[in-house]
Amino acid sequence: MSCNYAEGLSPYEHKGILGVPEKFEPLEKFNKKCDLLAQYISQSKHVVVHTGAGISTSAGIPDFRGPNGVWTLEKQGKKPSTNVSFADAKPTKTHMILKKLVECNKVQYVVSQNIDGLHLKSGLSRKHLAELHGNMFVDECNVCKRQFVRNRPVETVGKKCSGVPCAAEHVGGRPCRGRLYDGVLDWEHSLPDNDLLMAEWHSSIADLSICLGTTLQIIPSGNLPLETAKYGGKLVICNLQPTKHDNKADLVINYYVDDILEKVMNILGLDIPTYNEADDLSKMAESAIIDWTINRKDVLALEKIFKAKCKGVKKKRSLIKSKRNSAEPSTNSNDDEVDDKSKIIKLEVQENSITEGITANGDVKTESVEQNGTEQNQG
């Protein structure tokens, strides 16, 4: 359960802006924006989708910073009333739609901040998925770094040893004396190298990045969609709460992500698949050893594409959209450059920072915060 996962993390005070009121587009505006999103997808050659906790709430897994999020309620001394276990949770309509869009070559890559394993359960290929913060259904060898699918969620978080020997030789690798550790990151851990590289390079070469169910507060994952915009691509944000990057987006849709993608699929004339246990790798892992390691050949191939397109290309410095509809939510945010992309953000609040909060009309008021005490970013 996400509550148990949150409780298993190291104590950490600064978890970002919590409990910002949710906003919903009027129906007519919602329909027009979904039409535009479908048009963007149809016209794009390389689409990357960035997913956060908001895409799993309809599966019964609470988010973290929403009005009823785990950390929002924690601050009030409460816990979510709905909290389905990771073992019992099934992929949502959004998870299944993303799998379909990848199979139809409408989406080229998915970058996930989620540790719930629902992308894996949906049948989405590892070739098309980066998991920046780990996966409750994956173990990793501490020596050869191979990853293996589990048939049940890990019982620990923070890369703790399970004592199980590495199974590399059973999947075509060399015999390895390593031991398996849970693959779920804690606050201080480095992001997995290949996942981060693939996420950054795909985001840079994309002509469209779509953010689903994330407030984009955790970096570097929250800043990866900006790479698309900096290289001239479009940025779309779909979330119930405003985000710090709304004023850099070409399109913002405040509505349930399941409803947004269902409408888009109808416009594109595509069927929405249902969850099938036969495609669920966690079910297959009950009777077989499933390798979940990113293929190094895929990393090298993407590196060539990235260098061919982006090397020597000057990035845009200003991304703020001057012609955005004033009725759409926005945040006051500077275009920050992130040099250290090896850590999950630790929000070290400085004494001279501007206090975060919510204005009377429900907009977010951001503050300057520092990552690892060295550089300023916005949470």
From TrEMBL:
The record's family statement is: Belongs to the sirtuin family. Class IV subfamily.
The record, for SUPFAM superfamilies, names: DHS-like NAD/FAD-binding domain
Active-site feature positions:
133
Annotated EC: 2.3.1.286
Q: Mind telling me what this protein is named?
A: protein acetyllysine N-acetyltransferase
Which of this chain's residues are annotated to bind Zn(2+)? 141, 144, 166, 176
Q: Does the keyword Transferase apply?
A: yes
- Residue ranges annotated as compositionally biased, kind Polar residues, are 369-379
Annotated region (Disordered) at 320-342, 356-379
Q: Does the keyword Heme apply?
A: no
Q: Which residues form the Deacetylase sirtuin-type domain?
A: 26-271
Out of the domains of life, which is the source?
A: Eukaryota
Entry keywords, A to Z: Metal-binding, NAD, Transferase, Zinc
Organism, as annotated = Loxostege sticticalis (Beet webworm moth)
**If you read the UniProt record, what top EC class would you report for this enzyme, in one word?**
transferase
